[in-house]
């Protein structure tokens, strides 16, 4: 079974309501809670799906030059956090919302800047026309999904936030380092595939 089918079958079976992921107005009144969303775009190639990442523009005030998923802060006109992820993806890499099949939403997790980030897994056409917005994105980086399944992280860091310790893996793909919150999201998303693959190899 292909990696893409394993991934989508696993998360479709969870049957989570994506549109329910909407910030509550009373939460937004608190300056300490800043909701954001990212899209985890995976191409629909059964034989060799890619994970679409970006390198953030070097002039940005936060995360400059880092590898990340397309996404950003929730805005009042967004009907839900899934719409935030779609809007930001369109702005940053030219991905049309109608080209995204939303599969699953993961629990929000805190960034080191105090933002609560909700990741959304979405499948996109392998031939989707993508274009980096120069004001936000230096480059669009398709990386084989199999790389993150087959390769162990180059290193593991740990970070404590609000009394909770988070595991932060780091991969190096060619000249690019994928680390921090982005790598943590990738590891969580692929955990069912990684565990299944390793269990199969040990039999």
What's the quick description here?
By secondary structure, this protein is an alpha+beta fold.
* SSE-based structural type: alpha+beta
Number of helices: 5
Give the overall average pLDDT.
87
Structural domains: how many:
1
Shape, principal axes of CA atoms: globular
Characterize the structure shown:
The two termini are 18 Å apart. This protein has helices spanning 3-12, 25-28, 81-93, 145-150, 180-201; strands at residues 34-43, 50-56, 67-68, 71-73, 101-105, 109-110, 115-124, 137-144, 155-161, 164-173, 176-178. It has five helices and eleven strands, in the order ααββββαββββαβββα. α1 (3-12) crosses α5. It is 27% helix and 33% strand. It is globular, with a radius of gyration of 16 Å. The protein has one domain (3-146): Nucleoside Triphosphate Pyrophosphohydrolase. Strands 1, 4, 5, 6 and 7 form a five-stranded mixed sheet that branches. The longest helix has 22 residues, at 180-201. The protein is α+β, with helices and mostly antiparallel strands.
């Amino acid at each position: 079974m292909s990696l893409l089918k394993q991934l989508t079958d696993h998360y479709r079976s969870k049957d989570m309501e994506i549109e329910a992921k909407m910030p509550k107005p009373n939460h937004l009144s608190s300056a300490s809670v800043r909701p954001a969303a990212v899209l985890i775009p995976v191409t629909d190639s059964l034989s060799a799906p890619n994970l679409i990442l970006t390198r953030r523009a070097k002039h940005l005030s936060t995360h400059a030059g880092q590898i990340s998923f397309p996404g950003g802060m929730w805005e009042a006109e967004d009907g839900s956090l899934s719409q935030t992820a779609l809007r930001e993806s369109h702005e940053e890499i030219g991905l049309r919302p109608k080209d995204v099949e939303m599969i699953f939403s993961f629990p929000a997790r805190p960034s080191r800047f105090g933002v609560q980030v909700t990741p959304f897994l979405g499948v996109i056409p392998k031939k989707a026309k993508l274009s980096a917005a120069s004001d936000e994105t230096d480059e669009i980086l398709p990386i084989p999904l199999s790389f993150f399944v087959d390769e162990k992280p180059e290193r593991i860091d740990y970070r404590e936030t609000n009394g909770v310790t988070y595991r932060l893996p780091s991969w190096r793909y060619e000249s690019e380092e994928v680390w921090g919150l982005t790598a943590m999201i990738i590891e969580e998303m692929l955990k069912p595939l990684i565990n299944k693959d390793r269990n199969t190899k040990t039999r």
